From TrEMBL:
<dbReference type="InterPro" id="IPR041437">
    <property type="entry name" value="GH115_C"/>
</dbReference>
<keyword id="KW-0378">Hydrolase</keyword>
<dbReference type="InterPro" id="IPR031924">
    <property type="entry name" value="GH115"/>
</dbReference>
<protein>
    <submittedName>
        <fullName>Glycosyl hydrolase family 115</fullName>
    </submittedName>
</protein>
<dbReference type="Pfam" id="PF17829">
    <property type="entry name" value="GH115_C"/>
</dbReference>
<feature type="domain" description="Gylcosyl hydrolase 115 C-terminal">
    <location>
        <begin position="700"/>
        <end position="872"/>
    </location>
</feature>
<dbReference type="InterPro" id="IPR042301">
    <property type="entry name" value="GH115_sf"/>
</dbReference>
<dbReference type="Pfam" id="PF15979">
    <property type="entry name" value="Glyco_hydro_115"/>
</dbReference>
<dbReference type="GO" id="GO:0016787">
    <property type="term" value="F:hydrolase activity"/>
</dbReference>
<dbReference type="GO" id="GO:0005975">
    <property type="term" value="P:carbohydrate metabolic process"/>
</dbReference>
<dbReference type="InterPro" id="IPR029018">
    <property type="entry name" value="Hex-like_dom2"/>
</dbReference>
Length: 876
């Protein structure tokens, strides 16, 4: 493990309104009491970030108690309750305690960002005990100080989501020695991206108008949040609407004050923002094969400017505005040679300017889009450069390191999205990335040793608060996230901290349902439109016939969700209502009403005005949803927290058709037909003739209307394999659960004989009234192979039929892939014979570990089509 928690036993108790002696004993330490407050001692030699962390802690204590705690740089203690914070080698107090063997530093000395929190009895004459926070480096010490903030109940989102802590008269902590080794991931950070309609406008027009952009004032608040989240790396905002990060000389200074490492995205080589800083008129074309001298001068100037500040340099080169590098139509070999020349020149500049060995300078190569093609076709990359893999922009990691790549000196990392601008469609409005999916993908990356560098594209930061914290907590200590249950527990603790224990479980329940519905289809995709090029509102794939109405079902699911959030909102304490609105209420209400807007539009479009159907009702409901969404967004910007967040929440980024008000005069055509539905998805057909005793006794999946529908997690029997097994993952999939095969590094088995004998298998018992051809349809989560040469495979068979291997792999950015990411689902099928009526066994084997199966549909000719598979056909 990169990070060790030698003892994770720490309990915080607050004694409210009590003047009695502490009942916590020798392991207690008083922060604030009626008789005395602690004092924080920071050595003058400490880094600025340590001082900043101490100041934040003092403010946090004041928010809770109203009591002021002092920060002192004295050479002697004047308090009987000293909190001593310092970095090994920088703090004389820490050094003295180490010399006297009062502190054990063996588990953190020389380690990256490590810290220890300890109680030391009688550190000096006249002091009964001291609370000591010692760090291995400046960030380690600062993180240790901010850990006290967490312990006393302050949220990292106290400013960015207006989470107010519970008021207390006293704060007393129960502490046992706690040591944190190095974090799981060395570089952990965020990318501020696609900021045009939120963060940039908020900073420019509201928070920092004096600079007219995202400048030092805004970055100081961002860096404070990152310090609280233990994130250490920033990819600054870089769209052309935003002034380049290095155009403000104070930006890099503020970053250094907060000990933030500066990096840049895949299209910003060597910290250079090409979009904002490259001037074609004076510098020529952004084309290395014809203008290398000017481009290298550009690189050198930035390295000189950033020298002396912690940085990670992205090497390689792409075109302007996230486009492929212009190579004048050169073939792949010439492209590879040119890219290798670029990297070699960049490394020479780094070495000559910094006077350091190039192997010791943090560098990263991001094989994204066409750069991945160059890498897979033989580009030579020095071993010390980190590889950073990416997801496919929709939450599914494209590939990971092969066994030989896992041995690279520079290691590897992940660039992951919770916000995206691009085809097949943007999702820039709300956070609709499933947190359990994010855990599954990052846990997979962790298992394949991608532990050097994790970056999360957080868009405007808001409203990605929870997923940002989850991502950073996983990067800090992935050992605490070994299963889907750990994610749910994490959300529960988050909800308790932000909203109180009374409502926490209810918040988790409704957020899991929010994520399930968004997983079926993100709100931004509900108009069935595309981008690049932008298309107009399309035809919904939600299915309606005489017995099925998927539109109405989704309306009702969102109505139930809205009812839940309204109930929970009433139980939220007044001082927590703003935070609840930002973190839960607006996302739920916003998503529901955007869905209503289009769902009622499609109801209107597929129904003619006759037989008593009130067409205007659908139009009115759609318009009401649009107006409710507009009203809530105005409140978020103009009234919430007295306008603090004005301009941050835009309900129509890029003004795409999905965000506009539907036009009902154009909705219907002559081909529209009336459809009545009772929304009973699979009413059981009558069985002709005598019902057999076998059928009467049978309980389980049964054929109805010539189909058998099964949720994959509801297997009849499970048999583990020689090295792997199937497990149920909660919180992902259309029904909220899927089955997946673990461990990820289990031995690959591809021959039918080997699969049947050694792979884990799930059995589903079902009763068939039909005989003959049966089409087995599997719906899976559209993940990608671990690396080239692998697949996303499983095998299926009914009874003793020959097993059939199904592979869910897709190629590049194909139409199949686009459909998959729009639906968060991928489909494959196989034909099998059912020889007799009665009880049968469907078997599902693992082939590739990691495949996630969501739903199963056995079709004997009765399936008429639908967006989701019909509800389970179960006889109980």
């Amino acid at each position: 493990m990169h990070r060790k928690v030698l003892l994770l036993i720490i309990v915080m108790q607050a004694l409210i309104g009590s003047n009695e002696a502490s009942p916590l004993g020798r392991n207690s330490f008083t922060i604030v009491s009626p008789s005395e407050n602690c004092e924080i001692y920071i050595n003058k030699k400490e880094a600025k970030v340590v001082q900043i962390a101490a100041e934040l802690l003092v403010k946090d204590i004041y928010r809770i108690t109203g009591s002021e705690v002092s920060i002192l740089n004295n050479d002697s203690f004047s308090s009987e309750l000293p909190v001593i914070a310092g970095t090994i080698g920088n703090s004389e107090w820490i050094n003295q305690l180490v010399d006297k063997n009062e502190l054990d530093i063996s588990d953190i000395v020389g380690r990256w960002e490590s810290y220890s929190i300890q109680l030391v009895e009688r550190p000096i004459e006249g002091v009964d005990k001291a609370l000591v926070i010692l760090g291995s480096d400046r960030r380690g010490t600062a993180y240790g100080i901010m850990e006290l903030s967490r312990m006393i109940g302050v949220s990292p989102w106290e400013w960015w989501a207006d989470v107010k802590p519970e008021k207390k008269d006293n704060i007393e902590l129960y502490i046992q020695k706690r040591i944190y080794g190095s974090p799981t991931v060395k570089y952990r950070g965020i990318f501020l991206n696609d900021e045009d309609w939120g963060l940039e406008r908020w900073a420019t027009l509201n928070f920092e108008p004096e600079t007219g952009s995202i400048g030092p004032k805004t970055y100081s608040k961002i860096f404070e949040l990152m310090l609280r989240l233990r994130a250490n790396t920033i990819w600054p905002a870089m769209h052309s609407c935003t002034k380049a990060f290095y155009s403000f000389s104070d930006n890099k200074k503020v970053a250094d004050d907060y000990a933030i490492i500066i990096g840049t995205s895949h299209c910003e080589p060597v910290l250079c923002n090409v979009n904002a800083e490259w001037d074609k008129k004076t510098m020529g074309e952004w084309r290395y094969d014809t203008n290398s001298a000017n481009i290298k001068a550009f690189f050198k100037e930035r390295v000189e400017e950033s020298n002396g500040f912690e940085s990670i340099y992205t090497v390689g080169m792409r075109g302007e505005h996230d486009s492929p590098m212009n190579t004048g139509g050169a073939d792949i070999n010439a492209q590879i040679n040119l890219l290798e020349d670029v990297i070699n020149a960049q490394r020479h500049i780094l070495e000559s300017v910094t006077k350091k060995n190039k192997e010791d300078i943090p560098q990263v190569f991001i094989p994204y889009k066409e750069v991945l093609t160059a890498y897979t076709n033989g580009l030579t990359l020095p071993e010390d450069i980190s590889l950073m893999w990416t997801d496919d922009n929709y939450g599914y990691i494209r590939q990971l390191c092969k066994p030989d790549e896992q041995k690279r000196k520079g290691g590897s990392g992940i660039y992951y999205h919770t916000s995206y601008w691009g085809k097949p469609h943007d999702y820039l409005w709300l956070n609709s990335t499933n947190p359990v999916l994010m855990w599954e993908e990052m846990f997979k990356a962790y298992q394949f040793n991608s532990r050097q560098y994790w970056i999360l594209n957080v868009g405007d930061i808001k409203p990605h608060e929870y997923n940002t914290e989850l991502f950073m907590d996983m990067a800090w200590n992935m050992d605490s996230f070994q299963s889907d249950k750990d994610v749910k527990n994490h959300m529960l603790m988050w909800a308790e901290r932000e909203f109180g224990k009374t409502v926490a479980k209810l918040v988790v329940e409704l957020m899991y349902e929010y994520n399930r519905l968004a997983f079926i289809r993100r709100p931004e995709f509900m108009a069935w439109t595309r981008v690049e090029p932008v298309t107009q509102v399309g035809e919904t794939e939600l299915f309606i016939n005489e017995s099925v109405d998927e539109i109405q079902k989704r309306i009702e699911e969102y109505e139930n969700l809205v009812q839940k959030v309204e109930v929970v909102a009433k139980g939220i304490d007044n001082y927590r209502k703003d935070a609840f609105y930002e973190l839960v209420y607006y996302p739920v209400i916003g998503t529901a009403n955007l869905n209503y807007k289009w769902l009622y539009f499609f109801k209107y479009k597929t129904t003619l005005k006759n037989d008593g159907v009130d067409m205007e009702y659908y139009a009115r409901k759609s318009n009401e949803a649009y107006q409710r969404l507009r009203k809530e967004t105005i409140y978020y910007n103009k009234e919430l927290c007295n306008g603090k967040w004005d301009q941050i929440m835009n309900m129509r980024p890029r003004h795409l058709p999905v965000f506009l008000e539907p036009k009902f005069s154009l909705a219907r055509s002559k081909s529209d037909t009336l459809i009545k539905s009772n929304n009973e998805t699979c009413a059981e057909e009558s069985i002709e003739g005598n019902i057999s005793k076998e059928y009467r006794k049978f309980k389980g999946f049964v054929e109805q209307n010539h189909i058998v529908s099964i949720n994959a997690e509801n297997y009849t029997r499970k048999f583990d394999g020689k090295e792997a097994d199937w497990k149920v993952i909660e919180g992902i999939g259309y029904t909220g659960k899927v089955v997946s095969s673990f461990p990820f590094k289990a031995k690959l088995r591809t021959s039918i004989e080997d699969i049947v004998e050694n792979s884990p298998v799930l059995e589903y018992e079902f009763y068939s009234n039909s005989i003959g051809d049966c089409e087995i349809n599997l719906q899976a989560i559209p993940t990608h192979p671990f690396f080239k040469g692998r697949g996303v495979r499983c095998a299926v068979a009914i009874d003793d039929n020959q097993p059939v291997i199904l592979d869910f792999v897709t190629e590049g950015r194909s139409e199949e892939w686009k459909q998959n990411v729009l639906k968060n689902a991928t489909y494959k099928s196989a034909k099998q014979d059912v020889y007799a009526k009665g009880v049968h066994q469907l078997k599902l084997w693992m082939v590739d570990p990691g495949v996630m199966v969501d739903r199963i549909l056995l079709d004997f000719g009765g399936h008429k089509g639908s967006y989701t598979f019909p509800v389970e056909t179960v006889k109980k």
